[in-house]
Structures are given as structure tokens and as C-alpha cells.
Amino acid sequence: MSRRVSLPGASELFGGAAPKQTRPEKRTTTDGPSTVRSRTTVVDDRKSSGRIRHDTKITVYVTEDELLGLEQTRLALRAEHGLTADRGRIVREAIDVLLADFVDHGPDSVLVRRLRASEDRAAELKGSE
Predict the structure, then answer these.
(1) Residue 18, Ramachandran bin (φ over 0: left; ψ between -120 and 50: alpha; else beta)
(2) Which residue, 52, 128, 35, is CA-closest to 86?
(3) What are the tens digits of pLDDT across the range 80-128?
(4) Of 109, 103, 91, residue with least CA distance to 44
(5) Which of 19, 30, 114, 121 could pair covalently with 47 via S-S, beta carbons 3.0-4.6 A apart?
(6) Which run of H or E residues covers position 78?
């Protein structure tokens, strides 16, 4: 017997509305190509897509350790929490959480801190050559 458990997306966890389980609409603007939307507007409009048909695809290269960690997380979600999620769903949820944190915390967000630390390490390595 298979049981379906609804996992809240970051939008729900951070006080937004529940994600809709429909195809996302395409956006068009009448302001022309020079229109720049704030990061808050862009991220607030986007909700974790869950398991729906997706029109857009990206390719992301990961290390063996990252892929192993992702697969171990998928298996742990199933074994320990009774949640079935494919790797793509886990990645989409992680993106949703990370972007919500960025909107809420800006320069103090996990994303900014990690990217800054990564740049600092790269600069140190370059300086030691």
C-alpha cells in the first residue's frame, strides 16, 4: 500500500501560499526588454513546482560525493519519513528553500555566505601560487 504525504514547500514554511499543482504560466511584460524586476518579486512569484510537467530544463554537473549525498537523502526521506521524492524534486525543494532564505536575509543569507567563502578560498589559492 502506497501512501501519499504532502511535503510543504519553502513557500509554505516561510509564510507564503501553498504551491499550485498546475503548469506555470509564461510571463510577458509590456515594459520592454530593459525592465528589471527585484529579486524579491521574482522569487516571491515562484513557488516550488513539485511533481508536474516542466517546460524548462537545465543541466547541473555535480561531484560524485554530491550525487551520493543526494541519493542518500532520497533514500533517507523514504526510509525514515515515508516520503517518496525523486532527485529532481529534492533539488527543486532545495532551490526553493535557498531562494526564500536569500529573499529574507539578503547579504546574510546562506547563499551569499557560501558564495563569498568560496570566492575567498579561490583567492587564497590563487595568491599562494
Answers:
(1) beta
(2) 52
(3) 999 999 999 999 999 999 999 999 999 999 999 999 999 999 999 988 8
(4) 103
(5) 19
(6) helix 64-81
Q: How many CA atoms lie within 13 A of 79 on its CB side?
A: 6
Q: Is the pLDDT of residue 8 over 50?
A: no
- H/E element, 18: none
Closest residue by Cα to residue 49 from 83, 16, 117, 95: 95
Number of residues that make up the chain: 129
pTM as predicted: 0.58
Instruction: Kindly tell me if the per-residue pLDDT of 71 is higher than 90.
Output: yes
Q: Cell triple for residue 22?
A: 498546475
Give the number of other CB atoms < 10 A from CB of residue 43.
Answer: 21
CA distance 119 to 79: 37
